Amino acid sequence: MPLEAVEARRLYRQVADQLRSLIDSxxxxxxxxxxxERELAEQLKVSRPTVREALIALEVEGRVRIRVGSGIYVIExxxxxxxxxxxxxxxxxxxxxxxxxFLESAIAEQAARVAxxxxxxxxxxxxxxxxxxxxPGEASMVHDRAFHVAIAGSLGNAVxxxxxxxxxxxxxNPYFAQxxxxxxxxxxxRTALDEHRAVRDAIAAHDPDAARDAMRAHLVCSQExxxxxxxxESAAGSPAGRVRTAENQAKPAKSAKPERAPKTQxxxxxxxxx
Length: 274
Known about the structure:
Elements: H1 11-24, H2 37-44, H3 48-61, E1 64-67, E2 71-74, H4 84-87, H5 93-114, H6 117-131, H7 138-153, H8 158-169, H9 174-183, H10 186-204, H11 208-226, H12 246-249
Antiparallel strand pairs: 1-2
């Protein structure tokens, strides 16, 4: 038998795989309501953003439907579900935002040190375009991307420009797009514009600390907007112990290094959160 590559599965995929298995086995029948995000996080010993990424993945696959204010319901798939190998290359939305928070905060800090008048003018052009476009929509994403890329461009490093652009483009992946569908609105766009202005002003003032903090605050607030309650915390859950911890669900080979290094443990033991 030929050897197969060992894959370190992302934590949200481990959660999605376990919930999918429970649905397939009939533990959660079509029409039934899943436990709330809080209950799932407690049972699985993972963070709520990880649970949310898993639920969004299952919704994209057509296995569940999220009804804001009511709960998460199992549905009859209308079409064949997305193949797991295809899902393997999709990053979780919160994982992407945390990566951007780390990288773009440092870029904004350096931009405040080196940005020229022309650099600030390019940032201003993107910001002006953002202020005059409807959101949500494709055009708003184009100008938002241009803003972040313009800041990276002020460092004169083509690799950073490409990385920032590629990370932003992950907003187009189906998981990120589905999550944004619930929480983005003209109101959140106006709030995000204020956050962008704070970044721009700090860079134009050549204040590295303020620029770093403003960019970090913007991307942290983005995570918080996407983590808002679906309004279904009162939904009835399932019996305790129905879902095993994600860390118990998979035992990767020693040569693999799972995300956040989930540890094998006995049922009910403590687990490291993402």
